[in-house]
Structures are given as structure tokens and as C-alpha cells.
Amino acid sequence: MIVPICCQRVLLIATLSLLCTACQEQADATLTPKVEIKPTPNTQLTELALPPMDSKPYITDQYQLPTGLVVQLWQEQGQCQLQIGQHAKQVLALQAPCRFMRSPATDKVQVFKADRVIRVVALVGDVINKDCGNAVRALIVRGNSVHLADKTLKQGSYCVSRGLENAHYVQFLKP
Predict the structure, then answer these.
(1) Each residue of 26-54: pLDDT tens digit?
(2) What is the pLDDT of residue 44?
(3) Backbone angles phi, psi at 141, to 5 degrees
(4) Which letter, b or e, does each residue of 2-40 get, where b requires 16 or more Cβ atoms within 10 Å of its Cβ?
(5) Does residue 130 register a pLDDT over 90?
(6) Burial class of 117 by CB neighbour count within 10 A (0 to 12, 13 to 18, 19+)
(7) Mean pLDDT of 56-82
(8) H/E element holding 134?
(9) pTM, rounded to two decimals
(10) What ranges do the domains of the chain cover?
(11) What span, in angstroms and rounded, lies between the C-alpha atoms of 162 and 84?
(12) Buried b or exposed e, range 93-116, using 16+ CB within 10 angstroms
């Protein structure tokens, strides 16, 4: 019996395909053995203790007063801290991070001039995103002395890039 050439080719391809499939299955069986995993009875799961987060303190913002004194805002253990010059850091009643208020449309720290001697510099804390926070404190600068204002403003959202109005700065100067 004579088989046409096209049928011979089809038979040859089908035979080679079956051989390749059989070889592949045999290779898979030898390379990746089947392993059955069964839980051991009466096994209790215990949670792994995670190592503590590395909470090294770092500076979030700084400002150099005209007198040359550098004032820095630190983030340490979730709290905003203030360091004036080389003095010890003091914890502010604000959640970290904190940033100094900027003049609108600039990157310069906004400074309110109360008179010829007194300057007020505000800082925003409890920052929700990169720019806005829920609380504002202020530094009162009188010549070479710097102290923290007694008040904290919490009547809204304050954005670093928008600055504060003069009325807000005046509130920090009132007893």
C-alpha cells in the first residue's frame, strides 16, 4: 500500500510530538520529585517577634536666625523636638514631623516682624501630608534670645507653603 507524502509527513509529526511529550513528562518527573506536605498533628502556631523599628532621630527642618544662631526641628520617637543652637532638645506638644512655616510661593522661612526687635517664626506640626498639619507653635525672637510661645493654634489646617496671616502671629504674642 502506498501512502501519500502529505500523510507520511502528518504521521511523522504526530509521532515526534508524542515522543517529545513523553520525554518531557519523564524529565519533569526526574527533575522535580513530588513531595507531599502534611501538617503535624497538635501543632500550635506562634507569632514571630518583629525587631523594633529603627527610630533614630533626624532633623526635619532648620532655620538660621539673623544673629547666626541655628534652630533645628527634630523627629524623635514620633515627637517633634526643638533644638536652639547647642542647647538640649526640648519636646514640643506636637506630633512629628514638624516644619517651619514658609512665605507663600517661596522656600524662605516666614518671619513676622512685630516691631523693630521682636520677630515670630511659626512651625507646623502634626503634619498630615508633606505640606499641611493640624497644629502651629511659634518661636519668639527678641534680639539674641529665643523662646517658645506659650500657645498652640489648633483651629484648622495649616499649610507650610501658604504661610500664616498676621493675625495668627499676633495671637502668639498675647499672654
Answers:
(1) 555 556 667 777 766 665 666 767 655 55
(2) 65
(3) -110, 120
(4) eeeeeeeeeeeeeeeeeeeeeeeeeeeeeeeeeeeeeee
(5) no
(6) exposed
(7) 89
(8) strand 132-142
(9) 0.65
(10) 58-173
(11) 25
(12) ebbbbbbbbbeeeeeebbbbebee
Alpha carbons 158 and 123: distance in angstroms, whole number = 10
User: For residue 27, what are the β-bridge partners?
Assistant: none
The model's confidence at residue 169, banded by pLDDT at 50, 70 and 90, is very high
Cell numbers representing residue 75 in the block = 523627629
Kindly state the DSSP code that residue 165 receives in the 8-state scheme: -
Residues 6+ apart with CB under 8 A from 15: none
Average pLDDT over residues 69-83: 90
Up-side HSE of residue 124: CA atoms within 13 Å toward CB?
A: 26
Distance (Å, whole) CA 119 – CA 98: 20
Q: Cell 517661596 identifies what position? A: 106
- Paired with 112 in beta bridges are 120
Query: Omega of the bond prior to 33 within 30 degrees of 0, cis?
Result: no
pLDDT of residue 101: 93
d(CA 100, CA 127): 11
Which grid cell sits at 153? Answer: 493654634
Task: State the Cα–Cα distance between residues 65 and 170, nearest whole angstrom.
Answer: 20
For residues 92 and 138, is the Cβ–Cβ distance under 8 A?
Answer: no
Residues forming a β-bridge with 139: 121, 148
127: cell is: 503634619
